[in-house]
């Protein structure tokens, strides 16, 4: 759940939220933030400390209408097992929302920054890369600290766990991706977001985004 930013926004919008986080530090920060919210929001928000790959310990099958798994697969050693556990929690017609690092665009960031050795390394096929067993999420992480995933492989994985791909978008087509990225002033930010939103829905731009947002829908 990280810092709980999205979870808190959803709770404020009226949704009932369950946040799962294994790290005590961000869990405490979310608890502190939640304590400042009105009682109605606190009542709609449940926090659980636990591992996301152990969802069967905490939740019954079909427990949720929506499951958000954003920027988690990139640090998972067993992404397909994790996805299967998340899909198990979806109610009929439920939505699984994923954001992953785009394996097809690993050279874009360093290339645009003029970091030619890193860009070239990202373009080179690496037989030692951890691509996962055939038919899996196709994770790759050669030359990178975090795993990246391919759209076609994840499409197959989602179909295999009965949450086939419903829609997908590119995230951060033009803007840098990283903890040190700074937001521009309000007027420019509005234009930036409008441009990113349009590009993230438009071919061929969405295919070279830093991140991919995939939505899988459980058969109803």
Summarize the structure.
This protein is of the alpha/beta class and 220 residues long.
Please give a structural write-up:
Helices cover 35% and strands 20% of the residues. It is built from nine helices and six strands. The strands form two sheets. A four-stranded mixed β-sheet has the order 3-4-6-5. Helix 5 links the parallel strand 3 and strand 4. About 8% of the residues have low confidence. It comes from Streptomyces yaizuensis. GO terms for molecular function: methyltransferase activity.
Number of helices: 9
Characterize the largest beta sheet: strand count, sense, and whether it forms a barrel: 4 strands, mixed
Uncertain segments are 127-137, 139-144
Number of folding domains? Answer: 2
CATH topology annotation of the largest domain: Rossmann fold
Q: Could you tell me how far the N terminus lies from the C terminus, measured between alpha carbons in angstroms? A: 27 Å
Helix percentage range: 25-40%
CATH top level class name of the largest domain: Alpha Beta
Elements, N to C (H/E)? HEHHEHEHEHHHEHE
Tell how many strands the DSSP assignment holds: 6
Find the structural class using helix and strand composition.
alpha/beta
Radius of gyration: 18 Å
Q: Assign an overall shape.
A: globular
């Amino acid at each position: 759940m990280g810092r709980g930013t999205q979870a808190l926004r959803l709770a404020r919008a009226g949704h009932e939220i369950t946040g799962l986080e294994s790290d005590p530090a961000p869990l405490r920060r979310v608890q502190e933030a939640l304590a400042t919210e009105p009682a109605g929001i606190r009542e709609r928000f449940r926090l659980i400390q636990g591992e996301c790959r152990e969802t069967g310990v905490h939740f019954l099958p079909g427990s949720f209408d929506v499951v958000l798994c954003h920027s988690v697969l990139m640090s998972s050693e067993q992404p397909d097992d994790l996805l299967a556990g998340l899909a198990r929690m979806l109610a009929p017609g439920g939505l699984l929302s994923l954001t992953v690092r785009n394996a097809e665009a690993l050279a874009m960031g360093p290339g645009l920054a003029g970091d030619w050795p890193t860009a070239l390394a990202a373009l080179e096929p690496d037989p030692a890369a951890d691509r996962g067993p055939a038919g899996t999420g196709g994770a790759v992480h050669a030359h990178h600290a975090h795993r990246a995933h391919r759209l076609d492989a994840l499409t197959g994985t989602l179909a295999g766990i009965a949450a086939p791909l419903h829609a997908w978008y590119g995230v951060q087509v033009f803007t840098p991706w990283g903890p040190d990225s700074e937001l521009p002033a309000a007027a420019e930010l509005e234009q930036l977001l409008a441009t990113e939103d349009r590009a993230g829905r438009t071919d061929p731009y969405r295919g070279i985004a830093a991140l991919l947002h995939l939505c899988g829908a459980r058969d109803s």
